[in-house]
Amino acid sequence: MKILTADQIKKCDSATIENGISSINLMEKAANACVDWIQVNFKQAKRFLIFCGQGNNGGDGLAIARLLYEKGFDVEVFIEKNQMKFSADAEINFKRLKLIKGIDINNFSDVLIVNNEKSVIVDALFGYGLNRELSNDFKNLIEKLNQIPVPKISIDIPTGLYADKINEEESAIFKADFTLTFQFYKRSFLHPETGKFCGKIEVLDIDLNSKFIDEVKTDYFVIDGSLIRKIYKPREDFSNKGSFGKSILIGGSYGKIGAVLMSTLSALRTGSGLTFTMAPECGNLILQSQVPEAMFIGVGEKYVDDIEVQEKAVYGIGPGLGKEKQTQKALFDFLKSYQNPMILDADALNILAESQNLNLIPKNSVITPHPLEFERLFGKTQNSFDRIELAKEKAEELQIFIVLKDHHTAVITPERKVYYNITGNSGMAKGGSGDVLTGILTSLISQKYDIEKACLFGVWLHGKAGDLAAAEFSEESMLPTDLINKIGEVFQNLS
Ligand SMILES: NC(=O)C1=CN([C@@H]2O[C@H](COP(=O)(O)OP(=O)(O)OC[C@H]3O[C@@H](n4cnc5c(N)ncnc54)[C@H](OP(=O)(O)O)[C@@H]3O)[C@@H](O)[C@H]2O)[C@H](O)CC1
Ligand SMILES: [K+]
Where is the YjeF N-terminal domain positioned along the sequence (predicted)? Predict the structure, then answer.
């Protein structure tokens, strides 16, 4: 799914309106989509307190107020009575609303502390039209609303957030439990500094102009289920273990054998035909007894001191590797003698960061840093938006894929495209989850998935398995090994 900027969404609205539907009817459609969702998800609510701005986001709020009232809910509307100059469509909705006797229209300043658990606050103050910092009056209002302990819904975007950039200063931002957004994810929903205000995101389809959407150019995408269904290749009949590639997971050191073990198991669970673990001898017994399906190649006693080059294999290097001098030498010797794409993770990245010899990374390889590893490799950035920009530069310069791990992991391609993943949960923020991802990616690439597609599929699959593990064990209790055991269920649901 494409992610558009606020400017592009505005153009998309205009294209939709030029194509037949009037702007007021488009607003009605948007409001109806919200009300349909609210009716299903807030059946028990009694009273909606709806805060409306003067633009079209406010217009949506005014229409939602009328429609909810017609469905039998109690509704109170809050506006800035003194300074209101509504947009044309908001004005029409305001007039429609005033015809209804049962809805109180209050001033922002009338907001009281509401302590009724059956009340819900709806934020329709600003949407994608926000183009400057909020005035103190709005800041005060939002701070007040954020204190009220009732469920909160934002229409399109939590007020105070921009659609596609980070706020310049410490701003007051409406803290939603749910964001009902129209047609597209906005970039700000997907970054940690801004996304934390959105709560659960529901994308509501309002039939915006599909020709415009198909043709509009963007570097930013969300990885959704329909994209994955196009990428997924069911296993062919009449095949053998040689048909599904050879994965070699390299890593492990004394005390960190578990990391490479989890990568190995993940590669197997993702369908790798032949799977090897290249690890120090101290891991032999552990690996052979825990993962009998994998073959063991001993390289060193307590840490990896050599990397064997094998034909027609895909290498995933780094989990639990450590940074011993000999390991560093083994990695550099290997990179100098082997130029095929590979997956580099964890200590393999830390070793490269220390040497700053990044040109040794073979073209089309995949690196999987978390934000701190990214910083060690490429330097500090001010925020996660800048980090993505730097990743675009580096992915192009080095001609590699960067899988930037975060709450919403992003895949950045050498063509500077950015794909955000929306599967996964905080239960995956535990040591070991990254090792699982390395195994999954190595396995998919060894099965001849195109590298970009393998990255998109891999991060999605990893998150989806994490969601299944969280559903069974809770985010707190789920382990990376539980996630590995759920990979199969994700494949079952795909086929
Ligand atoms: N396709 C869709 O997604 C649809 C979206 N709809 C809804 O429309 C809004 C966008 O509406 P818009 O009127 O463009 O913008 P806002 O309502 O967000 O803002 C209104 C105006 O407020 C001014 N502004 C901007 N920042 C501030 C600020 N900090 N303080 C005060 N005022 C501010 C700005 O106007 P200026 O002329 O002053 O620059 C804004 O234009 C979208 O989010 C959806 O909710 C449609 O209803 C259906 C289709
Ligand atoms: K809003």
Answer: 9-214
